[in-house]
Amino acid sequence: MAAAFTIYRDTVKPEWVDYNGHLRDAFYMLIYSLATDGFMDRIGLDDATRRARHRTIYTLEAHVNFLREIKEGAQVRIEALVLAHDTKRVHLYMEMFEGESREPVSASEQMLLHIDTSSEPKAAAFDEDIAGRIAACCTSDVTAARYAGRVIGLPKRSSVATDPA
Q1: Is 113 in contact with 55 (CB distance < 8 Å)?
Q2: 3-class DSSP assignment, residue 34
Q3: Which Gene3D superfamilies match (predicted)?
């Protein structure tokens, strides 16, 4: 079973901070996007390989959980787990941590699709070497992904809902 692995580190930049003094929501996704690039490097789809093989990865869906605020200048790291994969897709789970803390400030899960870019972009099976590296990153312990699989929505009420304001 694979354990979580660090794929990205950064510092919260002043231009990423909002009027409340903490990381703006859009920049959580930027950090996760950059971390996905780190994941591609880890599985062998670095820039040189993407160009040579005409392959890349697109994000099909992404969910972000904002667990606690993080401020300008904070050191962040992204740890990842591959929850599942098939011949063309990867279900990637990531958590963002401040410094060396073990409690996440955010979590994200993404569905990634392998793309052949040689002509019109289209889904393609992973090359054998890449597929092997993805399989090596996959965990059978999905309980480690504590914020995965969440659904957004308001609870249903038996009576007519009223405006809380």
Answers
A1: no
A2: helix
A3: Hotdog Thioesterase (3.10.129.10)
Other Cβ atoms within 10 Å of 102 Cβ, number = 7
pTM of the entire predicted model: 0.90
CA distance 20 to 22: 6
Report pLDDT for 143. Answer: 82
Establish how many alpha carbons lie within 13 A of residue 54's alpha carbon, considering only the half-sphere containing its beta carbon: 9
The CA distances from residue 65 to 9, 42, 105, 110, 133, in Å, are 19, 24, 9, 12, 27
Q: What backbone phi and psi angles, to 5 degrees, belong to 77?
A: -135, 150
Going by pLDDT thresholds of 50, 70 and 90, the confidence category of residue 35 is very high
